[in-house]
Design a protein that fits this description.
single chain; about 110 residues; mainly alpha; 6 helices
Length: about 110
């Protein structure tokens, strides 16, 4: 029987690594609003996967890495990764929003 590298290893998990995400996010360089919008979408997807009874840990881990790699493409790179995560998850406090507005970060 012919060997097929695409079907032979059923247990191998194909996760995107940091370099893959970097390449995928290159179009967002210089467009922090679009990067932030993508961050919201990734966070929503991650929250959905995390809420499932049977969790796909590999996908959740890949999305966590994606958010880390996407972070420098947003205007948040000048402030805080933790604030970026709280904003994308909808958990930002009012005073934090005011502070970001004062810093000129648009969201």
């Amino acid at each position: 029987m012919q060997e097929d590298p695409n079907t032979e290893n059923h247990t191998r998990h194909l996760l995107m690594d940091e370099e893959d995400w970097q390449i995928a996010f290159e179009p967002y360089e210089g467009n922090p609003s679009a990067a932030l919008s993508l961050g919201f979408k990734l966070a929503i997807l991650r929250a959905y996967l995390d809420a499932q009874t049977i969790k796909c840990r590999h996908a959740i881990k890949a999305l966590d890495l994606a958010l880390e790699v996407l972070f420098p493409f947003t205007s948040f790179h000048a402030t805080s990764f933790a604030l970026f995560i709280r904003l994308t998850e909808g958990k930002m406090e009012f005073d934090e929003e005011q502070m970001l507005n004062a810093l000129g970060i648009k969201f």
